[in-house]
Specification:
By secondary structure, this protein is of the alpha/beta class. The chain folds into two domains: 101 residues, Rossmann fold, CATH 3.40.50.2300; 216 residues, Heat Shock Protein 90 (2-Layer Sandwich), CATH 3.30.565.10. 54% of the residues lie in helices and 19% in strands. The protein is built from eleven helices and twelve strands. Strand 3, helix 3 and strand 4 form a beta-alpha-beta unit. Helix 6 runs antiparallel to helix 7 and helix 7 packs parallel to helix 8. The longest helix is centred in the middle third of the chain and has 66 residues. 32% of the residues are buried.
């Protein structure tokens, strides 16, 4: 038992017994406050500062069960030990169902004191353990909420910083004359945008562990298309997708791959700058497919690669991180069809993969 006195409220219309219980429990570190009516007991309980209530069944004009019913409406009400002179089991069962923590039968002699003290000690310990658990749960929830808020703020700041870096790269691209350097800077900006958009998605998400791929890729491709149109290239980028949840690290890799494939299509498929690049994200059974298709001059994944080859290296590295590979399918007529298949179980969290 704790060192401080235990405050007990004893509700019983028997004044003589009330004084007896006060003396009896006062010897064992209990401070007993006695009231004789249900109304006085409820009023005192609502004031607070009571650790345990001892409640008599027969209160003259009222029943202890009525008091139990009123106390049950208050979540912070103290634990109640129900006492009565009757040995009827039905009263005990009814009291316990109504919310009493324990039940003691009034008897003559020391048995009543022993049983009442045992019930009090059990009630105090159980109540404090329950309240300690509730407080700990509140603190854990509060800490989690703080962590979520801080993580959202971090993602927000990262997204803003990457947006600033992308703007600086764009300004740098506008100040150079060499076409190769200008194109390289535009590709670098697209890669920065791919990562920045993911962090932007995270700080507006309820769960930073996952990203909704369809909305992420759509926002990424829309921003990418706007930046490319500003550079004078006008091919259309279309996007079709099913809602698919992906782990955050997987989404970054997929976003970079999509960016590189679309960049290649825009650079090499349509030399005259006119055409369409179609991006599709689909799910079939336990597989997710990312496809980038164009109707341009065509490339099947063989032969010399134009440019530095950095984009192909990035795609290969990202594909390895996703435990897959990129392949090119044959098409009738002109154009390129790049496909990457992913295992849904490896892509999404378990609860999403099972859905």
């Amino acid at each position: 038992m704790p060192n401080r006195p235990i405050n007990v409220l004893y509700i019983d219309d028997d004044a003589t017994l009330g004084r007896l219980v006060q003396r009896m429990l006062g010897r064992h570190n209990y401070v007993v406050e006695h009231v004789e009516t249900a109304e006085a007991g409820l009023s005192r309980a609502q004031e607070g500062g009571v650790d345990v209530i001892i409640l008599d069944h027969d209160l003259g004009s009222a029943s202890g069960l009525d008091v139990l019913a009123d106390l049950a409406e208050h979540a912070s009400a103290p634990a109640v030990i129900y006492v009565t002179a009757s040995s009827e089991l039905s009263i005990a069962v009814t009291a316990l169902k109504a919310g009493a923590m324990d039940y003691v039968v009034k008897t003559v002699g020391e048995d009543f004191e022993v049983l009442l003290r045992a019930a009090l000690e059990h009630a105090v310990v159980k109540t404090r353990l329950t309240r300690a658990r509730e407080q700990a749960e509140l603190e854990v929830r509060a800490a989690r909420d703080r962590a979520v808020t801080l993580l959202a703020e971090v993602n927000h700041r990262v997204a803003n910083s990457l947006s600033l870096v992308g703007s600086l790269v764009r300004m740098q691209a506008g100040s150079v004359e060499d076409p190769g350097a200008k194109a390289a800077l535009a590709e670098t900006q697209a890669r920065i945008t791919a990562i920045g958009n993911l962090h932007r998605s995270l700080y507006t998400s309820d769960d930073v562990r996952t990203v909704e791929l369809a909305s992420y890729l759509r926002s990424l491709l829309e921003e990418f298309a706007r930046s490319m149109s500003g550079s004078g290239r006008m091919p259309t980028v279309s996007f079709e997708a099913e809602p698919i949840l992906a782990k955050t690290d997987k989404a970054i890799s997929i976003g970079l791959i999509a960016t590189e494939l679309v960049t290649n299509a825009l650079k090499y498929a349509y030399p005259d700058g006119q055409g369409e690049v179609r991006v599709r994200l689909s799910r079939v059974d336990d597989k997710v497919a990312l496809e980038v298709v164009d109707d341009g001059i065509g490339w099947t994944g063989t032969g010399a690669i134009k440019g530095t080859g950095l984009g192909s290296k990035i795609v290969s590295a990202m594909a390895r991180s996703l435990a897959t590979e990129l392949r090119y399918e044959q098409r009738e007529g002109r154009g390129t069809h790049a496909v990457m298949e992913l295992s849904l179980s490896g892509l999404a969290p378990p609860e999403a993969a099972d859905g």
